[in-house]
Design brief:
The structure is a homodimer of 105-residue chains. With 105 residues, chain A is mainly β. In chain A, 0% of the residues lie in helices and 56% in strands.
Chain lengths: 105, 105
C-alpha cells in the first residue's frame, strides 16, 4: 500500500510533454502526462490486448482518435480506449492527463 | 473508444455511499464512489491477485488500511493497494473517489 500525490508532478515544460510514471506493476501502469497548451500527444496504437483510461485532471483540450476523431476534453472527462485503437490528446490550455494501462505495456 | 464525464455522477446521498460503475471490461473496472462527509467505506480485502488505485477526485478524508492505518487524503492523492490488502476510506467532507481495479473483480 502506498500513497502518491499528483500535486508532486504538476510540472509543465514549454513546447513539450512531461511524463511521470506514477505506478507500475504486473497489473497496471499509471502515467501522468502534462501537455503544454498548444501541444499534441500524437495519435498512436499498439497491437496488444488491453485497454487504457485517459482522465483529464486539469486544463482543456481534445481526446483524439482514428482519422479526424476529436472529442472535447476537460476536467473529469475520461476516455476509454483499447490499446490497439488509435488514441491521443491535444491540449488547448495546459492540460494534465492521467493514463491507466491494463495490462501494462 | 468512449468518453465518460465524471460530472454526471456527482451525486451524494445523506448517510450513505453512492456507487457508480464507470467502466467494466476484462482488463479493468472503474468505479466512482461518492462518500458523504462523516461516512466510512469500510476496510475490506479480497483473496485475489491484482491491484487497485483509489484516487480522490474531490473532498477530504483518509485512506484506511490494516489495523489503525489512516493517511490524509485529498484531491489528487492516489492510494495503490493490492486487492488482497485491507483498504478503505473515511470521508471528512463529501468525498469523491475513483477506484480502478485490475484485473476486475
Amino acid at each position: 500500500m502506498k500513497k502518491i500525490a499528483l500535486e508532486g508532478t504538476n510540472v509543465f515544460a514549454d513546447g513539450a510533454i512531461k511524463k511521470y510514471l506514477i505506478h507500475d506493476s504486473p497489473y497496471f501502469k499509471i502515467i501522468n502526462f502534462n501537455i503544454k497548451g498548444g501541444e499534441t500527444f500524437p495519435v498512436h496504437a499498439h497491437n496488444l490486448e488491453g485497454q487504457l483510461s485517459m482522465q483529464v485532471l486539469a486544463g482543456t483540450g481534445e481526446f483524439l482518435g482514428k482519422g479526424e476523431t476529436a472529442m472535447p476534453a476537460g476536467p473529469g472527462d475520461i476516455l476509454i480506449s483499447d490499446i490497439s485503437e488509435p488514441h491521443g490528446a491535444r491540449a488547448i490550455t495546459d492540460m494534465r492527463i492521467l493514463v491507466t494501462i491494463a495490462p501494462p505495456i
